[in-house]
Design goal:
The chain is built from eight helices and ten strands. With 240 residues, it is α/β, with parallel strands linked by helices.
């Protein structure tokens, strides 16, 4: 996955009624490169451009300038192909149907992806994220940690080489976060998945990721190696 000079602006008109014109610059020439099979973190304050970056990579938002590629395919030129290569999961999981079970939610997702062996794909996804004991319970009764697993199961259902996870562990307790990270590491090791995740948690970024990109006001301000808590803290403190 790679972006070069990626730029995205949102018009203020309609978003902020008291402003007659102007733009919010969500991304300002963002360059990010993630090698295949790596876990890469994107960290920054609210409004830094983290979610917009993932939505551009998932072809949900069109950039105004620059280029974004997934395994060599341009997100604008090869939009349909890129969508088949990306699995997106957000911390909110608004796409979950609460009255359905996890299995039924995945059946719906499998139909959208036109999977030929949907039953097998669903069983594999449920097993990989540890949702088998809860597969046939209504989603409305699941804990936040299990909901995050359901979102991850849906993202990996069609075996995409790139996973985009937008604050996947938000509001989770430390033990559940550790278990979620274990699942991600297992996916990376067994399927060579490339994983890009956004977070506000410095320790999560440093502990779970091999490299971390720091975003602020739509700009890349630093790239720090994973495990370097002190270096990442210094960079964030320098910007505050």
């Amino acid at each position: 996955m790679q972006t070069t000079g990626l730029t995205k602006r949102y018009p203020l008109r309609g978003l902020l009624p008291w402003r007659a014109s102007g733009y919010v610059e969500a991304l300002r020439g963002v360059d990010v490169a993630v090698p295949p099979g790596a876990i890469h973190g994107i960290i920054g304050p609210n409004g830094s451009g983290k979610s917009t970056l993932l939505r551009v990579l998932a072809t949900l938002v069109l950039p105004d300038a620059g280029r974004a590629e997934v395994h060599g395919h341009d997100v604008q030129v090869d939009e349909r192909r890129v969508r088949g290569m990306v699995g997106l999961s957000t911390g909110e999981e608004r796409g979950v149907y609460w009255r359905l079970t996890p299995r039924q939610n995945l059946e719906f997702a499998a139909a959208l992806h036109h999977l030929t062996d949907a039953g097998h794909a669903i069983e594999v996804a449920l097993h990989r994220v540890g949702l088998e004991p809860y597969a046939d319970r209504p989603a409305a009764g699941l804990s936040q940690g299990l909901m995050r697993r359901l979102g991850l199961a849906r993202a990996i259902l069609h075996e995409p080489p790139l996973l985009l996870l937008d604050e996947p562990t938000r509001s989770l307790d430390p033990a559940t976060k550790d278990e979620f990270h274990r699942v991600l590491d297992e996916l990376r090791r067994t399927r060579s998945s490339t994983i890009v995740l956004t977070t506000h948690d410095l320790h999560e970024a440093a502990g779970a990721c091999e490299t971390v990109t720091v975003l602020r006001d739509g700009l890349v301000t630093a790239v720090v190696r994973g495990g370097d808590d002190a270096g990442l803290r210094r960079e964030l403190d320098r910007q505050s």
